[in-house]
Automatic annotation (TrEMBL):
GO biological-process terms attached to the record: methylation
Pfam families to which the protein is assigned, alphabetical: MTS
Protein name: Methyltransferase-like protein 5
Entry keywords, A to Z: Methyltransferase, Transferase
Protein family per UniProt: Belongs to the methyltransferase superfamily. PrmA family.
Keyword hit for Transferase: yes
Organism: Methanospirillum hungatei JF-1 (strain ATCC 27890 / DSM 864 / NBRC 100397 / JF-1)
UniProt GO molecular function: nucleic acid binding; S-adenosylmethionine-dependent methyltransferase activity
Length: 202
């Protein structure tokens, strides 16, 4: 599937009905989601692979991977988000296994299976400092390769945090467009520079 075709399909994915600012529940834009998934596919990390989406939200990354032939498990601890993600998956004809658990919780390690590839758009830590760390920790335990969306300029911090466990092998600059969502937003649209980091476990 070509990148543009994937992007057009992902435009059909519904976002959050009642997003939480504290949990940084912003919908991943279809162009950004498609770019990450297509990039991973070209590297041989999606099609015919087991793929784990950590913090799947309403399912856009998980659905993208399923559309490109992955066997997908999606993890999310928000019941309402899972409900929307399941509906999105049905709408696009995708079979995805959803697991309700907190990535940082005690039971998560046992509930979340090992896989070939992790995909994720974790919280950036704007509301809760270091909110991305449990996602990095779990990803490094569960897969040999990780594709994640992070704040632009986060590379040195991630490199130091995962030192001895993994390393960033590729970084691609991208943009994340956020529409006015919460009461503290003063503009109709925000353009946030982000990076897609590819991390390989040692």
């Amino acid at each position: 599937m070509k990148l543009r075709q994937l992007e057009m399909l992902l435009q059909r994915v519904s976002g959050f009905d009642n997003p939480s600012a504290e949990r940084e529940q912003y919908q991943t834009p279809a162009p950004l989601a498609a770019r990450l998934i297509h990039m991973a596919m070209l590297a041989g990390d999606i099609t015919d692979r087991t793929v784990l989406d950590l913090g799947c939200g309403t399912g856009i990354l998980a659905i993208g991977a399923a559309l490109l032939g992955a066997e997908v498990v999606a993890v999310e601890d928000d019941v309402e988000a899972i409900r929307i993600a399941e509906a999105n998956a049905r709408d696009l004809g995708c079979s995805i296994r959803f697991i309700k658990t907190d990535v940082a919780g005690e039971e998560a390690l046992a509930l979340i299976p090992d896989c070939d590839t992790v995909i994720m758009n974790p919280p950036f830590g704007a509301q809760t400092e270091h909110a991305d760390r449990p996602f990095l920790d779990m990803a490094l335990l569960k897969a040999h390769v990780i594709y994640g969306i992070f704040n632009a300029g986060s590379g040195p911090f991630i490199t130091e945090y995962i030192r001895g466990r993994g390393e960033i092998t590729t970084s691609v600059l991208a943009g994340l467009t956020i529409p006015r969502t919460f009461w503290f937003h003063t503009r109709d649209r925000y353009e946030i520079p982000v990076e897609i980091h590819v991390i390989r476990r040692n």
